Amino acid sequence: MRAVVTRPGAGRAWLADIPRPTIQRHDEVLVQMLRVGVCGTDRHVIARAISATRGLPDGDDYLVLGHEAVGRVVEVGPMVSSVGVGDLVVPTVRRGCDECAACAVGQADLCFTGNVRERGIVGLHGFLTELIVEQQDHLIRVPEELAEVAPLVESLCTPEKALRRIGNARAHLPMNGAVPGGVARALVTGSGPIAILAVLALRLRGVATWMLARRPATSAAARVAETCGATYVCLSDVDLEAPQASIGAFDAIIEATGAAELAVAMLSALAPNGVLDLVGGSQERKAVPVHASVLAAMMVRNLTLLGSVNANSADWQAAVADLGDMRRQFPGAVEAIITDVLSMRDVDVAFERTPDRIKVVIVVDGGA
Ligand SMILES: [Zn+2]
Ligand SMILES: [Zn+2]
């Protein structure tokens, strides 16, 4: 069967013919893949150096790409009870280390050792192929109405976990609201799929939301933000030395650009008791200056700086529920995130970054 694969050092992805998987354990499920989203993580995997052999599954000299997927169950093992043949499912991505307390209770997103594997990213084949086999515990059922947009569930997990973490960080405050911790005013930095979905998730909860990014106010990302009632601000219109002067102060900020300078600047845009959550990051070896007064303000205003990665099963369930609610409450907004629908034969251009692209989704051969 066909698959989109890569190999450390190759610097590209290509179509390959790989063996068809079969159910080996009683709790496994055979899933026909339908649609798979592409993101910056795939570009990092493709760009991996030849020395990165840890990224390859045991015994194989290639890695099937793809971790943002939806498929349909075609066969189930005898012990499978949570999904049935014909169900639409989204597979989760991270698999635990079998060594730590977090992974032991199914919270691999909090892994203490870092020895996790992730399908399509590190150590396990991904979903950009015709069929996959997966244990039932790693499959999330999704309603039929989400078939076209369900590759976004994986992206939405990140803001779902961020909102949960921000709520936890503010749980001690004497406030209530749709977002735990009573967040009334929030900012999302960035204009990629995770940033847009974070804006939609905040608007769904009635939070007054701003989006700050480099793209012009006429961009598709800015339009989606505004159709759901958020305010879009161009980065060029904000003085990063004094951001509050132009955009005010925020109870919560989700930093989704990964730009360290912006993350540091946004600490000065937090309201008292505010929380800044980093959901992006850069591996660049460069120093970013932080004024001592910014750290002093963190103390004086009870601020929290946190980072969050990946998601647990509660976040995946929340993402499925919220994606449906977003489609009902903000018609067209979720669909507008998927700017390019390609086929597996478009492998040479599918992973390219172009200015107008937000999310590329690949329709898998044989899937509908
Ligand atoms: Zn991704
Ligand atoms: Zn672990």
Q: Which topology of the largest domain does CATH recognise? A: Quinone Oxidoreductase, Chain A, domain 1
Helix content estimate:
25-40%
The average pLDDT is: 95
Estimate the strand proportion.
25-35%
How many distinct folded domains? 2
Give me the CATH superfamily of the largest domain. Medium-chain alcohol dehydrogenases, catalytic domain
Give the secondary structure arrangement, pairings included:
Blueprint: E1 2-6, E2 14-17, E3 28-38, H1 40-46, E4 63-64, E5 68-76, E6 88-91, E7 94-95, H2 101-104, E8 117-119, E9 123-124, E10 131-135, E11 139-141, H3 152-169, E12 185-189, H4 193-204, E13 208-213, H5 220-227, E14 231-234, H6 244-247, E15 250-255, H7 260-266, E16 270-278, H8 292-300, E17 304-307, H9 313-329, H10 333-337, E18 338-343, H11 347-350, E19 359-363
Parallel strand pairs: 8-9, 12-13, 12-15, 13-14, 15-16, 16-17, 18-19
Antiparallel strand pairs: 1-2, 1-4, 3-5, 3-10, 3-19, 5-6, 6-11, 7-8
Helix pairs in contact: 3-4, 3-9
One zinc ion binds at residues 39, 41, 67-68.
